Amino acid sequence: MTMTSNRPYMIRALYEWILDNDFTPHLVVFAHAPNVEVPQEYVNKDGQIVLNIAPRAVEGLDLGNKAISFQARFGGVPTHLYVPCQAVLGIYARENGQGMMFDLESNPEPDPDPAPVEPDSKSAKRPSLRVVK
């Protein structure tokens, strides 16, 4: 039986730990991963971008199980960012570098709740009831 990725849980836990210690949380993101929406002009030659996700630097931060999304300013321009969790390479405190780095996940997880498949009307059995005494 497979389990979901622990990466989003680790990101949330480290984010809280960094804030509890009055430090500034930063995310390292692989900007060329699928579905990543970040300002490409700030991506380095290795395809990475470092994002300040401190409460004073972002608006509407959502650290979800599938992705991280928020609003931030780049060059004074409000920008919406969307980072799938598998594109996060690390989270650390700017002041001392404490945190955790992750390996790049190549494939996103399959959706754990796939849509139910409708049975073919010809092969569907009718429900039946019987009296049990």
UniProtKB/TrEMBL annotation:
Top-level taxon: Bacteria
InterPro entries per UniProt: SspB
Keyword Transmembrane helix part of the UniProt annotation: no
GO BP annotation list: positive regulation of protein catabolic process; proteolysis
A GO term from the CC aspect: cytosol
Basic residues bias (residue ranges): 124-133
Swiss-Prot/TrEMBL keywords: Hydrolase, Protease
Protein name: ClpXP protease specificity-enhancing factor
Organism per entry: Saccharophagus degradans
